[in-house]
C-alpha cells in the first residue's frame, strides 16, 4: 500500500553512505511487510538494495546468505549433494504464508527482522545453527546466533540503527541429517508449529528446533538421542509459553509440538536410508 | 524517473512511499486492481522484468529501469494471450475483480507449479468462483458454448463482459479519473461508546491540500437505516451521515476532503477530539439486562421494537403446542449452537465517486447492489427531489449482500454537495473489517422431539442475534432466520422466538443467506442428532419430515399466502445426493488412521424476499436489426447480465450477440428494487421475459399488418419476420415503423408476488485426523432445485462459489472482536478466506423441475447454495469422530482435544 507519510528515500550504495539513523527511519529490504501495513510513524526509507550485497556466497566454511537475498534466490540455490540439510531450504520456503510471487521480493533478512513466530527463515536459520552478522551504527559489527536473534513475537535483538547484514551457515550444519514437520490451521496457511530436527552424520547428537508454536525459537540440544519421555520432559520444561493468536490456540500448538517432536525423534533415531 | 511499461516509455516521479500499484493506476493501467493492498489477494499482480510480483508491495521507485508488464500488456496486439483465451473459454471469473491478477499469475506458472496449483495460487484470492472454473481455465477446459438463434436459454452462453474482464478493460467503480477529483478519508472512533463534546478542526484544515473537514455539525439530521429494502419501513432509522455519538470502535466521526489521499489521511490524524467516554456493552445477553448501557436513545417505531432495552426486533411465533409435542416424543435433542461474525470479503471494497453536474444533479457512481434504492434514500436524507439524484454503477466487484447497504454514498453525497467538487471515497480492506458490516452472529437454542419411527413431534428455536451498533438489517434477518429453517419441516408443533440486540460492536448487515446459514446450522445439526438418536440415516429422516409439494410451510409465522410451490424438487435433491454419496468415488484419506464420516443437510429458500420486489425492462428494436435493452439490475458477478440476454434472445428468436444491454443506472428510468434476495434471474429475468415477449408480439402484429399475412402465419427469426413464407427484414420493418411514427419498444415489469421455493441438499464425506484435528473433504456434492436452469455453467458456478464461501465460514473464517470491542482480524492475513488449496471440487447436480413463476421455469440460486454447507460438514465430522461441535468455525485447534478424548 502507499506509505503516505514517507517523504524521503535514501539509496546508499556503500556502507559509508548510509545516512545516520533517526526516528521515523526504516530500513527497506524487500518491502513486502513494510508496504503491507500502514506505517504512520515512518518518514524515511533507507533502501538496502542499492548496497548491492551478493545474495548467496558459498565459501569453504559454508554458505553466506545476505540479508537482502530474496526468498526466491535462496529457494533456487543449487546445493552440492553433500549438503544433506539442503532440502530444508525448500521446505521452509514453502512454509511461507506468502505466495511465490512475494518470494520474488521478500528477503531472508526481512523475515528474520520481522520476527514473527511463524517466520520460516527464522526456523531455517535457527535449525541450521546460523550466525547473524549485524552492522552497528558506529561502523562496527557484532555476531549473534540466529536462534537468539528473535527474542519474542515481533521483537529482535537489533538496536536502533543496526542492520542485519547476513546469516552464515556452516558446512557442518549443512551436512546434518534433518527432519521437518509443519502444520497450520489451513492447508497452505501460516505455520502454527514448525519443528526441525537435525543429527550429525557421525555422532549421536540431536538438536530439535521448535518455532512457530513458540514466541521465539527454542533449540534443544542432546548429546545422545533422548528417549521419548526425556524429550517430552525437556520440551515441557524449556517451553514456558506457547504463542496465542488466530493462527492457533496455545493448547493445540503445544499438542502439535509434542506430537511432531516425537515423530522427528523417531525418524532421526532410525538409521539413514542409503 | 523513466519507466518502461508494456513496451512503452513513461516519465514520472512516484511519491516517496508510493507503491507500484498506485503508480500504474495513476498512469491509467486500471487493470491493476487494489483488492487487499497488503500482498495477500494478488489482484495487483504485474511482472517486473518478467517475474510476477504483487505490485502493492513493491515501492514504485524500484520499478525504475525495469520492464513492467500489466494485464493491458499481456495480449499481443489484438491476439489474446492463451491464458486470457482460456479464462474466457472456461469462464474462469464471476465479478472479474481478481481476474487480471489471476491471469497474470497463471500465465507465469511453470509446469511444476501448474501441477500444484494449491501452492502456486495461494497468493490469489477469488471470492466468487470457488476456484473450479479457474482450475478448469488453467487446465484448458472449455465450458462456454454458442447458442443458435432463439435457443439461448439452457445453454452455457458466455458472460458478455468476458473479453473486457480478461483484458483488464472492464470498468469497476474507481476505474475512472474525473478532472479535479478530491479524496475523502474518514476519521474513526477509537472508543466503543462515547459522546463527542467537541472537535477541533483547525490543525486538520491547516494541512496543505485539505479542502474540507465535515463533522456532525455539517450532517443532515434525518435518521435513516443503511439497510436498503423495497419497503422503507422495515429498517430501523437509527443512523446519521455523521453522528456525535460513537457506538463502536471504527465508527466514522469526520470526513476529511483533500486533493490527495495522503493529505486527507494527514487531516484525519490532525483532528483533535474531546470525547466523553460512555459505558459500553459487547455481549448481547448483557445488553439485554436491566441497567445495561442504552446504545440508541430512541423511541420505538415500526422497525424498532424497544431500543431503550437495546432490542431492535423480536420474534415470537409458531403453531401448535410444543410442550405436548415434546411429551409425545421418544427422543429429544436440545443444544445451544453459535455462529460467529464473518465478513463478505468481496474483493472490490466499498467505494463511490460523487459530483454535482452542471444541471445541479448529484451523481454517484458506486459499488452497489441497489442503485435505485440508494438514490431514493440519498434524496430523502438530503431533502432533494429524486430527479436531482442519480446513482449508478458499472461493473461491481462482488457483493454477497454487503452492498445492499448505503455505507458510502451518503457521506460521498455530503462531501460532493459541501465542496461542489468531484469526490471519491474508497474503503481500505481494514475499514471493510472494522467499519462495514458482518454477518449477524447468533446464539441459537434448538430443541427437537421425534418419535422412534422417525416423525418430528416438536421444533423449538430461540435465537439471540447480535446486530452490533446499528440495526440495519437486524429485524428482517431475524425474521428470515426463524422462517425457512423451520418451515421446510412438517411438524404440528413449532415455536420460534428471537431477539435482535444492539451492542457496541461493528454492525452486522445483509449477508448471503440472510439469517438462514445461522439457523440452518443449528437446526440441521439438531436434525442429525435426532436421527442418530433413533438410529435413522439423516437424509432418510429429512425425507420423511420435510415438506412435500402442497404441504403448508409454517415457521414463526403462519404460512404466507404469497409463497407457493411453483415447482418442487426437494425429493430429487435427496435422491441425487444419496446416490452420489453411495458411489465411492471421492478422494481417499491420506492414511488409514484418519477417521471417516458422512453428513448431509438441506435448505429451503423463498425465491424472492417478502413484500414485493420490482424490476423493469425496456427492449427496443433498433435500426440495424438488433435490440437495445435497459435493465436496472447491477452486475457483480451474479451473471444476471448473461441471463437477461439469454431470456431476451430466446423470446426474440435471436442470438445474445444481437442484444445491447445497459443497466444499473437510476437515470435510465423505471425502477429496480435491486440485486439482492436471489432475485436477479427470477425478478429481473422475468421482467425481461415479459418485455421481450411483448416486443415479439408488437413485431409480429406490425409485420402481419404491413404484409397482409395472417398473424399466425408470421414468425420471428433472427433477422426477419417471415410472413406466410416471405421474410421481411427487421431493418426494413424498423424503417417502415419509423416512417409511420411507431416505435418498436416494449416494457416488462415483475413484482415478486407470488413467490416460489428453491431447495438445496449438500453431502460431505470427510476424513478427520484423530491427533491433529485436521479435516480433509474427500467428497462434496450439492444437489440444487433451481427450476429449469437458464445457464448451467453459470448456475453451477454460483453453487460452487457459494459452497466455497460457506466452507470458509465453516472451517476457519471469524471476525474476532476482543473484550474492548475492537476487531482483531482486520486483514486477509488475520482473516483467512478460502484459497484454491482450501476448496475441494463439489459435484453439482440439478433437480429437473420447471417453475411456474420464474422466467422459462427458472428459480433463484444465489444465496441458498451457501446455507446447507456448514451443518453438512459438522454432521460429517460428528459421524467421523463421534463428537458434536456446536460452534463455527470447525478449526483443528478447537476440535482436537474433544476428538482425542474419544479416541
Compact overview of the structure:
Chain A is α+β, with helices and mostly antiparallel strands and 274 residues long. Helices cover 26% and strands 26% of the residues of chain A.
What does this structure look like?
The complex is a heterodimer of chains A (274) and B (903). Chain A is α+β, with helices and mostly antiparallel strands. Chain A has helices spanning 71-75, 87-94, 100-103, 108-114, 120-127, 146-149, 171-174, 228-238, 250-269, and strands spanning 8-10, 25-28, 44-47, 56-59, 62-66, 131-135, 141-145, 150-152, 155-156, 163-170, 177-184, 191-199, 206-211, 218-222. In chain A, the strands form 4 sheets. Chain A has a 5-stranded antiparallel sheet with strand order 4-5-10-6-7. Chain A has a 4-stranded antiparallel sheet with strand order 11-12-13-14, sandwiched between helices. In chain A, a hairpin with a 6-residue loop joins strand 11 and strand 12 (191-199). Chain A is globular, with a radius of gyration of 19 Å. With 903 residues, chain B is an alpha+beta fold. Chain B has 4 domains: 2-167, Beta-grasp domain (Ubiquitin-like (UB roll), Roll), CATH 3.10.20.30; 182-278 and 348-398 and 403-435, Aldehyde Oxidoreductase, domain 3; 442-609 and 754-902, Aldehyde oxidase/xanthine dehydrogenase, molybdopterin binding domain (Aldehyde Oxidoreductase, domain 4, 2-Layer Sandwich); 615-750, 2-Layer Sandwich (Aldehyde Oxidoreductase, domain 4). In chain B, 27% of the residues lie in helices and 21% in strands. In chain B, helix 17 runs parallel beside helix 24 and helix 23 (792-811) packs across helix 24. The longest helix of chain B has 28 residues, at 680-707. Chain B is globular, with a radius of gyration of 27 Å. The N and C termini of chain B lie far apart (65 Å). Chains A and B meet through helix 3 and helix 9 of A and strand 4, helix 5, helix 9 and helix 25 of B.
